[in-house]
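#struct-help
A.M.: can someone run this one for me? Single chain, 204 residues.
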Amino acid sequence: MMIHHFTDAGEYTETTEARPDPRNSTRHLVPGNATTIELPAPIEGTVRVFDGDAWSHVTDRRGVVYWTADGSKHEIKALGEDVPADAYLDPAELPAAVPSVSDVRLEAARRLDLIANPYTAQERETWHRQIEEATRLLADPVTPAPFVASRAAARGMTPAELATEIIAKADAYAAAAGAILAVQDELSALDPIPVDFAADARWP
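D.P.: on it. Structure tokens below:
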């Protein structure tokens, strides 16, 4: 007599010959996780699973890797699980991602950072004070401006000269930042947003 073994989950593992029962020669020993119920023929792409009463064929795609439209990667690890109908087995077949307004804003922020990168974060925190004092100085050369005055003295400049330089740089930064944010607004208003939205040719 042949007996068919299966795992705790019921998945078929092997077939062996049953040993006679030493206490009853008309019977055979059938261990746990085994059955004498006839095993069906194999079918490609499935495994045979015993549910306690009968065998059935269950889809076996374990180990298959696929990608969903959002670009995320998945691997099938359970019996009976199949590749979704709208999934991709080759990541090269994934449709091009549709850029979002958030993507455009991140690109604009990256370009704004490039303008400010020559200066440390600590120095940038003083820009507001520098501009405030410089503006007052250009309107009234004798107005107190301790921040600008100390920096001007260290650089061998008059406070008014440094104030003029500060305002010029502030205006240049404002113009550059404004141009970047203008492109951000233009791209964000497009539907759909072009996939090459980050190309240098689109930005100032």
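A.M.: thanks! The two ends are 83 Å apart (CA to CA).
D.P.: also worth noting: DSSP finds five helices and nine strands in the chain.
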